[in-house]
## 1
Amino acid sequence: MNSPSAAIPESLNNLISRATSLSDAQIEDEIAESIYRTSRELSREAVIYTGAGEQDRTEKLDRILTSPIWGYPIMLIMLGVIFWFTIAGANVPSSMLAETFARVEGWLTALFMAIGAPGWLHGILVHGLFRGTAWVVSVMLPPMAIFFPIFYLLENYGYLPRVAFNMDRLFKWAGAHGKQSLTMAMGFGCNAAAVMSTRIIESPRERMLAILTNNFVPCNGRWPTLILLASLFMAAGFAGSSATLVTALILMGMVLFGVLVTLLVSWTLSKTALRGVPTHYTLELPPYRRPKILNTVIRASLDKSWNVLKRAVIVAAPASIITWIFANIYIGDTSIFMYFVNFLDPFGQLLGMDGFIIAAFILGLPANEIVIPILLMGYLSQGAMLEIDSLSELKHIFVNQGWTWLTALNMMLFSLLHYPCGTTLFNIYQETKSAKWTFMAFAIPTTIAVGVTLITATLARSLGWV
Amino acid sequence: MTSYRVALAGNPNTGKSTLFNTLTGLKQHTGNWPGKTVIRAEGTYVHNNQEYTLVDLPGTYSLYANSADEEVARDYIVFEKPDVTVVVMDATAMERNLNLALQVMEMTDRVILCINLMDEAEKKGMTIHDRKLADRLGVPVVKISARNKQGIDQLLDAIERMAEGKITTRPYRVTYSEDLEQKIREIEPDVRKIVGDQYPARWIALRLLDGDYSLLKTLQDQLLNQRGKGVETGELSVSCHT
Amino acid sequence: MVLNKTKTLYDCQSGEVVQIKSLQVEGTMRRRLLDLGFVPGACVKVLQRSPMGDPVAYRVSHTTIALRQEESSRIWVEEIGGDQG
């Protein structure tokens, strides 16, 4: 082995100064051009094009998918179609799962009675653990197992770079990076993962923008809340397939509103705390490639189902138990949970919601999946225990608690806009290494969520709509 | 049983990740490259009873260290010296992909060119003369279609033979203008004096002339590190599951 | 190569095929453009503008790359042909 001399720094420095004296500005170009010229010669020798219609299909498709007239409408229609499939497809399996779980709950109760188990044990395990987890699974599993395979098909087909291409001008206006639309697309799956994916943005300023606003894209854990409330309340006046359509349109509106908030927040930040001009970038539009359809669908649905189940067990199960305990330990004649709820109620009412909802969002910090289960448990714990074996009965519970369309709308808005979940915040801290920016990632969305719901509530009330 | 280290380099959108997933299946894990916020994916596979550790380098258009991605990929190939570097190429865009391949070939002899997406190229009526390319470039060329699992065995065999030292390559070196070649000749001997035979002297000379200071920094650290600890073969932790 | 008019890539219309003369871009972006095949002498086909007019997609060395006006207006080209690539 040729051991390096003791004076590495000096000899290196000598070398550098010699190289610098030999170097000139043209060398950079010359190297790049020479290599490119060689590549071109080699590929001319070794690659023969016999097909006439080379690249035709992609170009033709792009002419439509990114056209000034059709580009945006097609994007919106695709989004709408994905939602439509998700909602229409998820209804039946969701209620089947709910029914099955209700039946199993009956058996479990019978079993607990038969072995003479104490009431509190039955409460914790069946009404807490089992019911909470069952809710998460039956409400979340079907939509996620339908939404993501379709989404991944589009992604594998090569459509996402076209979205980035179409949307680039808007992000440039907002002072953000063009790749932000790609990290936002990741956010549909999981904001925590999307925060990691912002690494594809090299400039720290633009990366921070992408991190701080990613939360305005509804994730895995919030989709079901949005779908559930939209279909129960917003589309209530419509029947059958038009109800599905209305639900899909409302979801689309929510997503577009999220995009709008993203752009506005990015714009504001890039004019204030994160001032600067967008860095240069290039975007490759790869050819459309027919994905392995079956492969993608199976892999994505299994993947997502597994994910949902895992989260249900890891996060929803313990949270359900804790919530049940809080709801059933009484101080005087009021449970701990109710003290909490009553304390929050005036604030919740001000925002067009109630104390239960705010409590559910606060207790749902670890994971957005558990917000609805906690809310239901809260509602059910005070009052008669209902047997819920269909999703439509859910609405009765909500309506009995005084819900109106405004309550549903504001809960949807709050869900869309509020602080990121615990995992996401943790990742933000990991990625930014800054307590200040992690706090901002919490504070900005929360302020917006409170502000927007306050406005809609005040407006709806003063106009006498509710 | 020690594991051979195989690096996957290539442009974005070449199906590099598909190949990585096909080869490693579930035996993969991700982390961070030391000191960099670039995702590092690593996995293992077994071929003919020999274990291989596959490192999926970030997809890049070149290796001049314009970005953290490129720096990571470049440093791994040069300083960690994998047993084999596979350049995954998009058959439908050979020109641009050869651009990266030629850069890799300036950095190491242990290169295999893997032309992926052959199914797509054929559909477009393209013919790629892999033998001619291999002759001209002096390194093995394997045509595959990762998503149809075609050509994978040939690729694995080529990797095996190269890792075991059964293939000698003569990588094609880009010839620059006489002026630049003269400058390279002028400083290459001095580079060799400092780095010895363990790093590609011509390539380093070229980078120096290009004013690539991030490389110099890494090079200096590497050399000092070695002097302190004796020869180090890289801190890659080999994960053995099988 | 009848017309010998130089203009920037940004000024080109969809469908035009042009040859790159020079890049007035410096630093990392210059390198990036060179890596992608925007080298002097290369042929570029202008594909189309995004719905809001910018960026524009270009066909270069058998790949499609979108550039914003900031870059494309600093790439000098010469017309060489009509509507085919």
## 2
Amino acid sequence: MILDIATLVLASAGVVFFIAGTLGLLRFPDVYARLHALTKADNLGLGLIALGLVLQAGNVWQALKIVLVWLLAIFAAATVSQLIARSALVQRSSSPAARDS
Amino acid sequence: MTAALVFDLSLCLLIAAVALAAVLADDLFTAIVLFIVYGLLAAIAWVRLDAIDVALAEAAIGAGLTGLLLVGAAARLGGRGAPPAAGRTPWRLLGKAAPAALCVAAAAALVVLVLALPDDAPGLRPLVAETIAASGVTNPVTAVLLNFRGYDTLLETIVLAVALVGVWSLTPDRDWGSVPGARQHARPDGVLATFGRLLPALGLLVAAHLLWAGADAPGGAFQAGTVLAAVWLVVVMAGVLPAPATADTRVRLLLVAGPAAFLGFGAVGAAGGVFLGHPAGAAKATILAIETALTLSIAATLGLLVLGVPRRPA
């Protein structure tokens, strides 16, 4: 019962972070700000949801697998967002309009 | 209304909405991204239907690999594939309305057919359950794919190889046998390089687990092969390993190893009376041998499909 409530609270908090991240993705002005919103919020959002699910896991191995999924998602997200930011930086520095401003 | 029903209904609506958005998208890249989202949602739907094997295949191949191939194709088109931006001409509308009408008709026919199915239709399930003890594995999906209807899987793997031959046949003469894919520019001390060195340790473990688990749980050669291909592509992109030359004999042997092993064991079975039959008592061993060879071949084929046409010297 207490575990179920803890899961609900953690998962709901995770969803709030996802909503905040999505809002940032839709509303922020440029690539870097949008990435900032997405990666910060998604990692924490996914982390909270994973933590909530760990409490429901049947055994230690299941719990470890959920944590592993979270870690992999963090590594992939960190790598990909770095690549996106770098590519946006390269594009900006090579476009004449951005160089003038 | 139970929570599960609400979830399933929202999922169905979401899938239909994303599919519609993908078809109606003006921009090629947007359409591809929506297609990938559609594939991931479809994978969740398969999970809800308790078809974990199909869900894994849909997520890995339907959404992941096919999406990647489409992104690669769009990048090669370089914007030329995008429809003209000049308003909604009648032809353009027709070009979208006609396939949409076809899809609606096909979907309607499917709905009618599914609703017309008898409520209690066990299909081949009892037959599989009855004979699974002799198949060498306990996952019914693997039993069907590698034992009861092995020739389907054999032909699938050959189709994959033929697809790669199709891609390679687009090579200009001067580049024949050279290295496929763009030159990679990852910095040796960058984030991607670190990821490329970190991922294989875990990725190889996951692939091996999927391959081994396929015998008695969801998994198998296709899922393991896709994971392996993805890990290999990251390693290549990160500059940890160079992409191989397509003229390399080892690469070509790897590509045909799976189908060859399948055919080889099949021929042994033919000598014993049934083509693609497994020797009694040793079915698990031969299935595992075939699946291991298939995993390596599928990984190599999928990876090289993504890398595409050979275009630069080794």
